[in-house]
Specification:
- 2 copies of one chain form a homodimer.
- Chain A is an alpha+beta fold.
- Among the domains of chain A are: 114 residues, FAD-linked oxidase, cap domain/gating helix (Vanillyl-alcohol Oxidase, Chain A, domain 3), CATH 3.40.462; 106 residues, 2-Layer Sandwich (GMP Synthetase, Chain A, domain 3).
- Chain A is 38% helix and 20% strand.
- Chain A contains 19 helices and 18 strands.
- Chain A has a 7-stranded antiparallel β-sheet, sandwiched between helices. A 5-stranded antiparallel β-sheet of chain A has the order 5-6-10-8-9.
- The interface between A and B is large, with 84 and 84 residues.
- Chains A, B: Keywords: FAD, Flavoprotein.
């Protein structure tokens, strides 16, 4: 069953190797590990619902608790320390567009606000209940998950927006197609959630970001339905799909979407290379991108991340071999790892491999084959489980991410890492902060930083340190002129930093559009802007 | 000098070959050729300006006449028959963002409306003055045409939005870069015009549509400035660039834009193939697209267009040879022409050529080399001059275009052609209607239909027949569920057909956004929606 207070299925554990724990304790000190709040005690905190149980609405304490949060650090600290709430008053589970329409109409009649819920994986507070006096209906879309239509000639599939990754891909694969959208949250996050948060999958270089994959969509809005897009290409006015993408539930609930799909690839491999330093690896990444080599993925870890990943993975003998091999190849002691995804039919894959490895080697990369990549691919969605075991071992973890032009990648990365260290140093704490780029574009790349620090023993301490960390890194991102989010969205955590990116005029435009379709502000209010 | 009443430079004529004229007369009958209105007589129709000449504003009759129209059929018929107007009251020519800001502030203070003018090439009425009682300032952006910045590492160039194609490309080529945006109007149309009408260049398959090329932009709006975009990639809320793209001057005037550029390609060739029929050519086009072969351009002419193009080109001996060659190759008498653009460095070009020709030949294509393609490339922007000589020979011409999924291409094309024939048959006139697809996407392609019919001798007749034709074809497009425009925009001619594409809710959203930045409706009013 789904964990109510952590990541994933409660039958799955990803243990933290003893050496990894020792490494973290040597760097950060030993963290506190108070006992987590229990499900029973958390349920006991859920007050009586302000709504009667409409047909199909669940007003039980457990359902309302389970739908009261996502996976942001603030959510996580609240559920682990037992400081949860506010809660939605009811959870509805519509299975079709018409069901969703009916739920919204009923909610509106009741003066309730609505929070759309996909897989509950938001890391920036999209699902947070903010009490403004109105009752709250959480609309769980997971029952609306079917492949509704597939046109193989046009390569367009109509899919229920509540479909989580595995359900969506299984239905498409039965017909020989894939969407190809693989965020780390793939096991739980849903099509509708990907759309309204502008998600980017790990192989966006081949398949595109979710905005490239969206052909058209149907929304249930506060007072009406809205069919958007559906044209092959159009110069007829603004592209309104691009208002829906990133709308975070505030324009309406996406109930069905027409998505561009493509045939299952015959061949896939992930190649690993090491470079002597970050500058060399970054230059190689830029060269591969600018040469237009059709890799499906391109990731570069900085030296801190390369080191930490190898230690946390716990493959000590493999690491020893690797270090001695890389040392022998004169790569020094701060190597940076690159991973290249090669996906396609056999001939195309051969060509991509040759082109990409050719450029990477010319830039100083040492190719060590596909074995590490195969392990990465096998565990690509399981890494999120480490958060559970890190917490249990006394460590908090969060990620902050942005995208920057090539000319400013290194400066922005340094600023983010320094901000993280400075924020925790203020509490006499240390941070382990490391970063990678994992999505490349002609103009630049994403930057994804992970920060690990030790737990403080109580909710107030953990949340204060995190707030300080989050604010410092967000200010570093904004100060670098970079986006407040490349792939996680805005929610509540990034909302204070949206105006510098969009401008005040831009915020006014967004608000005008939201007010047009939702004059009473009943759709996921207090999120985005 | 620029022709005031037709296409292009008045020192350039593209003669209609005698055989082409004879062919058209045999199919359509001989058209009337009354004498065109003179520049003097047209200037004499321009009434006194309602505005005083502000510094830098031109209120002369000739400037106001030259800025009173674009290149739509309605514009063309009006200027040729001397039935012009209404006119802008003044023409301003700001050279910078600050100049544009000042023009808008002054216009606002005067209670005037503003019509932005790039190269005057709109074919759907974007530049038409619609008299609602307020004075009108036409803002000619042609003095704002400089390359302002170029970052070769990020491959981003900041360019004055008034730059027409040749000026823009020359400045970039001096640094080894191109934008790669080549609409047929390239000689005159401007960056800002491309952005606000969502233009597609002939080699969009390589370089992208203008929306793919736009990194960020600066706008002067009615009451404020607006900086939009500028992020490498972002999940932080709606992408507001996509409201600017297609805004047709109504959100504000784009003054500067940051564009994705790429290095000049070493090699370029355009290969021609012939197929026995449309279905075979269409299937080949779809296969090449779905195989992901990186051709820079893919065009397929239907049988009527292939025949007409060859006749109008006037290369009789070449055609005879081609027909006999194609006949010998058993292609029959309704061959369809495909043209494939191959652009890149030498190794990439060789690969693209091999892949694309391999698929095309397997689908029955007969490759005749690159000579026809070289002629096409040399004349790629000169074809527009034929409109002048067709008119002088007694023939009217217009184009209608859309985009459709692969599964509906042929049905939509037939419906458009039949609508054109039926509309003119109602006047006992015949139409020559032929089509091609010239932009391909995973889900489908553009469809571009040209219609030639004979002139009726006076303005009322010409405009009535055209209105009937335009309405019939537009209804056929809407009836096919297709977009009212793939590459020309909305203006006034397509405005009645926008709601079926965007939905009433979508139109409300667009209007809410426009009203937010321009509550008085002073920016290009009565256009778009």
């Amino acid at each position: 069953m789904r964990r109510w207070n952590g990541w994933g299925d409660d039958t799955i554990d990803k243990a933290l190797p003893a050496a990894a724990r020792a490494f973290l304790e040597s760097r950060l000190g030993r963290g506190d590990t108070p006992i987590d709040a229990s499900l029973d005690s958390a349920c006991a905190q859920v007050p009586a619902s302000r709504l009667n149980a409409e047909p199909g609405w669940d007003v039980s304490a457990e359902a309302r608790l389970r739908h009261a949060h996502g996976q942001s650090f603030a959510d996580w600290a609240a559920v682990r320390h037992g400081d949860v709430g506010p809660f939605p008053d009811a959870v509805a589970t519509p299975a079709t567009h018409a069901d969703t329409r009916a739920v919204l109409d009923r909610a509106r009649a009741l003066g309730a606000v609505v929070i759309p819920y996909g897989g509950g994986t938001s890391v920036v507070g999209h699902l947070k209940v903010i009490d403004d006096g109105r009752p709250v209906v959480c609309v769980d879309m997971s029952h609306n998950a079917r492949l509704l239509d597939l046109n193989p000639r046009d390569r367009i599939a109509r899919i229920g927006a509540g479909a989580p990754g595995p359900v969506l891909e299984a239905q498409l694969r039965a017909h020989g197609f894939v969407l190809g959208h693989y965020p780390q949250s793939f096991d739980y996050s849903t099509l509708g959630g990907w759309i309204v948060t502008r998600s980017a999958g790990q192989q966006s270089r081949r398949y595109g970001r979710i905005e490239d994959l969206l052909h058209g969509a149907r929304l249930a809005c506060a007072g009406s339905d809205f069919d958007v897009g559906g044209q092959v290409a159009s110069s007829a006015g603004p592209d309104l799909r691009q208002l829906v993408l990133g709308s975070e539930g505030r324009l309406g609930i996406v109930t069905e979407a027409d998505m561009h799909v493509c045939p299952v690839a015959d061949h896939e491999a992930f190649h690993t290379l090491f470079f002597a330093d970050w500058d060399a690896a970054l230059a190689a990444a830029r060269s591969i991108t600018h040469a237009g080599v059709a890799v499906s993925m391109l990731r570069v870890s900085n030296a801190e991340e390369t080191d930490t990943q190898l230690r946390i993975a716990g493959h000590e003998s493999a690491i020893a071999w690797l270090r001695s091999y890389l040392g022998w190849r004169r790569l020094g002691d701060r190597p940076c790892m690159m991973m290249l995804g090669v996906t396609g039919d056999r001939a195309l894959a051969r060509r991509i491999r040759r082109d990409a490895l050719g450029i990477a080697r010319a830039a100083g990369g040492v190719h060590i084959g596909t074995r590490m990549g195969a392990i990465w691919a096998k565990n690509r969605f399981a890494g999120a489980y480490l958060r559970n075991s890190l917490w249990d071992a006394g460590f908090a973890v969060d990620t902050m991410e942005t995208a920057v032009p090539w000319s400013r990648t290194t400066a922005a990365m340094s600023a983010m890492q320094q901000a993280a260290h400075a924020a925790l140093n203020r509490y006499d704490e240390r941070a382990l902060a490391f970063a990678h780029l994992s999505h490349v574009y002609a103009a630049g790349s994403s930057l994804y930083m992970t920060v690990i620090w030790r737990r403080g023993g109580d909710y107030a301490t953990d949340i204060e340190r995190w707030r300080s960390l989050k604010a410092a890194v967000s200010q570093a991102i904004v100060g670098a002129g970079a986006t407040i989010s490349h792939q996680h969205g805005v929610g509540v955590d990034h909302a204070p930093y949206l105006a510098p990116e969009k401008s005040e005029t831009g915020i006014d435009l967004i608000r005008a559009a939201l007010a047009e379709l939702d004059p009473d502000g009943m759709m996921n209010p207090h999120k985005l802007c």
